[in-house]
Amino acid sequence: MKITFKIWRQEGPNDKGGFQSYEVNDLTEDMSFLEALDHLNEILVLKNKKVVAFEYDCREGICGQCGVFINGRAHGPHDNMTTCQLHMRSFEDGATITVEPWRARSFPIIKDLIVNRSAFDRIIENGAFISAKTGTAPEANAILISKTVSDRAMDAAACIGCGACVATCKNSSAALFTSAKINHLNGLPQGAPEAHQRVLDMTAQMEKEGFGHCSFTGACEVECPEGISIVNIAEMNARFIKAKIFG
Amino acid sequence: MTLFFRKSIIAATGLFLCIFLIVHLSANCILLLPEDMARGMYNSYSTLLRESPLIKIVAYLLYLSIILHVVYALIVTIKNKRAKPVGYKVSNTKENSSWASQNMGLLGVFILIFIVVHLANFWARIKLGLGEEVGTDSVGNKDVYEVTSHLFHNIYYVLFYSLLMFPLGFHLYHGLKSAVKSLGFYHRKSLLIISKVSLIYAVIVSAMFGIIPFIVYFK
Questions:
Q1: A181: domain CATH number?
Q2: Which is deepest, A82, A237, B94, B159, by most CB within 10 Å?
Q3: Per-residue pLDDT tens digits for A40-85
């Protein structure tokens, strides 16, 4: 396969940056997208040029590190998928693929395609935990939870914090991420003691980090590798009202 | 002031305006009646609207809603723009979201232009008494029917009025179903129904508002 990569190159956070084109001729359809980038980097190394910086870790769709914007969509042309799950067979031979980093004020670019997503960590630090005595594991059946409630919590807990929701949102809203984290804990009895404070603190931090408003375009739930529904955002809004009244 | 607060204001005022549109449309339907019947009914209805104290309160709520809706939409848009200062070189939003949802601001600007022209043509003349004086009909009511019929016999105005119902339709379709979510309604099955209701509401309201001027024009 012959592919022309048009990749955003930026030396550091304060560098202006710009697109650079790279032609790669010996790719195969079976390569994953990240392997194709690896191959490009090998070529760059042999030419004594700087490699393209991009993030990855597990390469099996569970860690959320490999977020890049490919041909105008977060994680590439498919719905509900991470970049590492994308293969070159999704592109046509001879195609030009534009690769850009996540764009959001709250996700400053570190280098090339790598952005700083620690704004998410700070939202987590502000309430996405429960206060519980540690020590020996408690008896599994001590707190009974219905299947519906546990399924809902697990659906929200599936969020891997990749940042595709923020990246694809025209307002760079972090509402899907924050709502997933809030609903995961607030829907369970273990999260109940700090429920109201959690909503208020986490949404306040989300605003402080400079994320935008949710317009319910629905783009985030299409790009989310875990398929987390935007109904979570509506639920977060309801929890917010409840926290304001009873919290 | 929180993200939630700003969007709730937009959502709540938007929903109020959606209800107002139904009332407004029902009045427009009087125009479909034969002329001698329509004139009397239309004029007495508009006299009722001007003079009822209850309607006066609703009218002020309406002005306030439009202003708040626009002002907060502007604030939210500016803040959103700040949250995403650099856009993408290639952006395929049509693959993951509706065009209307991505362009609510632009659609809103068209609707605002319409409202300004619409108010200048009717509200300013009839209620504020600006411009050409409005005559009275046989029972002494202000002849608002004449004002409307006169405007709807001007093809440029009819086209302007009807064409701008397209952005209204798109704006209503995304606005209605999203407003309820912004206000924290999250029952999944009902949201699916609301989404369909929004579509039906948007199509009916915008199509009716858009067709009536043509019917009057050709009457």
A1: 1.10.1060.10
A2: A82
A3: 999 999 999 999 999 999 999 999 999 999 999 999 999 999 999 9
Within a domain: A105: no
Domain co-membership, A135 together with A88? no
Q: Is the CB of B90 less than 8 angstroms away from the CB of A171?
A: no
Question: Do A57 and A96 belong to one domain?
Answer: yes
- Search chain A and give the residue with CA nearest B189: A231
Domains identified in chain B, total number: 1
Give me the half-sphere count of Cα atoms (radius 13 Å) on the Cβ side of residue A162. Answer: 36
Report chain B residues whose CB lies below 8 A from the CB of A175: 3
Per-residue pLDDT tens digits for A160-202: 999 999 999 999 999 999 999 999 999 999 999 999 999 999 9
Whether A241 sits inside 8 A of B186 (CB atoms) is no
CA distance A194 to A190: 9
Domain that holds residue B21: 3-83+99-218
Nearest neighbour of B84 by CB, restricted to A104, A239, A240: A104
Note the ipTM here: 0.93
Interface contact flag, B88 A72, Cβ < 8 Å: yes
Q: Which of A245, A247, A57, A8 is nearest to A162 (CA)?
A: A57
